[in-house]
Amino acid sequence: MTATTPVALDYVSKLAPYIPGKPIEDVARELHLDPATIVKLASNENPRGPSPKVLTAIAAAAADITRYPDGYGYHLKDALASRLEVSPAQLVLGNGSNDILELATMAYLKPGDAAVYSQHAFAVYPLATHARGATGIEVPAKDLAHDLSAMRAAITPATRIVFVANPNNPTGTWIAPADLEAFIDSVPRNVLVVLDEAYNEYLEPADRAQSVRWIAKFPHLAVSRSFSKAYGLAALRIGYGVMAVEVADMFNRVRQPFNVNALAQAAAVAALEDVSYVDESRALNRQGLLQLYAGLAALGVRYVPAHGNFVLAKGGDAARINTELLHKGVIVRPVASYGLPEWLRISVGLPAENERFLATLAQALGR
Ligand SMILES: Cc1ncc(COP(=O)(O)O)c(C=O)c1O
């Protein structure tokens, strides 16, 4: 008798798993390197380490971990609602903003429905879409960026969700607020526009869309934001969505009752209050981008002007360069799985980490 396992759903067995940035520990173990000498610029994390105020908040919240967290997230919703000038009922908290993207597909997609997203857009859009048995419509990018008019044209009666990343990962491209607003207005009101703003806090304030304000006139808009990037809380897994009360109600019906843990909630409240940490992170990121641009240009490497905390650079033989960088203890992100086999994505690190990457890249390129 052959051992068999239950047959999974056809569309689940066809899913291509998400490929994360390689953890430092794995690279150290596999390549026999000292973890202390490894530089990781592969997951668009904040390189500064956490805000001390966040650490204090986590220590205080740790005393209560025998209790379930507040499944509603009262304090964090209260803080977010006053910061964003929305009602707490418009907010959905997520186990990372990834959770918000998943909840959108759980509430709005079934087999036979379709979701539209751009080529080279964040990998979770196709993953979450296909996990519901729905069809993903990938719209060819224009100069690596979202082609909004082609995305509008790709919407059919079967379309229930359109994903837009602004800025987008892994390309770092950005859509000007006026273009974005016109696009959202052009989308039929029975199609949910999921506007993923995971890197919003890295944009200069003048470049940020007033997306949360738009919700009042666009009830088909859901904005998702993350605490993993500029707020520096990637390991805690926390993000949020802002949307019309009726849409938030649907997201909240499909989420786990306790999807955001207590340490993450306490940390996020403290992170929101620590405005200077985020401002300093943005300033450091701006400097780091200039450092990487200058270094890449000096090496004759083409790059895409960035709007997040990472740069997409054309390595040519990116797989080989990536292997050489790894062997020298520098972890970046190959993006072949995004349809960009010649490119590497480099997260902005501390100045010395950026320098180490540039020097190691120069060696890998034989310069
Ligand atoms: C565009 C984009 N959206 C969402 C996420 C999810 O981030 P998190 O779940 O950590 O909030 C990421 C993470 O890399 C991202 O790049």
Q: Which small-molecule species are bound to the chains here?
A: pyridoxal-5'-phosphate
Number of strands: 13
Q: Could you describe the largest sheet, including whether it forms a barrel?
A: 7 strands, mixed
3D shape: globular
Low-confidence segments, given as residue ranges, are none
**What is the terminal separation in angstroms?**
61 Å
Q: Strand order within the widest sheet? A: 2-8-7-6-5-3-4
SS-derived structural category: alpha/beta
Oligomer: single chain
Mean pLDDT across residues? 97
Strand content: 5-15%
Number of helices: 14
N to C succession of SSEs: HHEHHEHEHEHEHEHEEHHHEEHEEEH
Give the helix level as a range of percent. 25-40%
Would you kindly provide a written description of the structure presented here, covering whatever features stand out?
The protein has 367 residues and is an alpha/beta fold. 39% of the residues lie in helices and 15% in strands. It has 14 helices and 13 strands. The strands form 3 sheets. It has a 7-stranded mixed beta sheet, with helices on both faces. Strand 9 and strand 10 (310-314) form a beta hairpin. Helix 3 packs antiparallel against helix 11, helix 4 (74-84) runs parallel beside helix 11 and helix 5 crosses helix 10. The protein is globular and about 55 Å long. Pyridoxal-5'-phosphate binds next to helix 5.
Give short descriptive properties of this protein.
15% strand, alpha/beta, 4-stranded antiparallel sheet, 7-stranded mixed sheet, 367 residues, binds pyridoxal-5'-phosphate, single chain
